[in-house]
Amino acid sequence: LLASTEMSSPSLKTGAYILIGVGALTMLMGFLGCLGAVNEIRCLLGLYFTCLMIILLTQIAAALVIYFQKDTLKVELSDIVVDLIENYDPSDEDKRNLQDAWDYVQAQIACCGWTGAKEWENNEILKNKSNTEYPCSCSNRSKDLVEGGGFCNLEDPVNGTATYADWPVHEQGCMDGVEEWLKDNLGIILGVCTGVAVIELLGMILAISLCKNIHSEDYTKVPKS
């Protein structure tokens, strides 16, 4: 959902570019580390140490940006989702992947809209049908969830019109659902992040230790193209 370049905010784009850069650096780091350790080349081990340090500092910087800019990111994400809901169209193949991703979020978290189901009343298609249809992925009925996405027909609408209050959908907005999920899994998230940081620190320590134990370098061991 957040990877969509046509709807993402500048902050989210910057975050995506940072992750791409870290991924590329990780691949380079692994190659340099293996080559330096096998052939006992201090220069390559030094580059390995430097790459690990840059990755660790980048992760710390990203965590600080998220923490101090969380309100801004929340507003930007809200704008993205609200625009997606208003322009949601099951027949639009160009936005199919993005819309399927949002349907998945609503179905998995059991939520509807960003702050609530009322936001779906602003959808152009639903307004034209007097809200006698509703998003299937919001439904609290298992038979609607089989559809996966798109709109489901409301049974027996009054005078051919309805409001979100008449829909058989979840009351909770996805913003609250995501926040609850993060709170419930905060321990796991922090544990994984701490584990990754510890592994990176151990790698830096091992690289320095190996460098100190290498008294002479034989560059003839380095593969030549």
UniProtKB/TrEMBL annotation:
It is a multi-pass membrane protein. Belongs to the tetraspanin (TM4SF) family. GO terms for cellular component: plasma membrane. It comes from Alaudala cheleensis. Its main location: membrane. InterPro entries: Tetraspanin/Peripherin, Tetraspanin_animals, Tetraspanin_CS, Tetraspanin_EC2_sf. This is Tetraspanin. It holds the Pfam family Tetraspanin. It is found in: Membrane. The chain crosses the membrane at residues 16-38, 45-68, 188-211. The gene is Cd82. Keywords: Membrane, Transmembrane, Transmembrane helix.
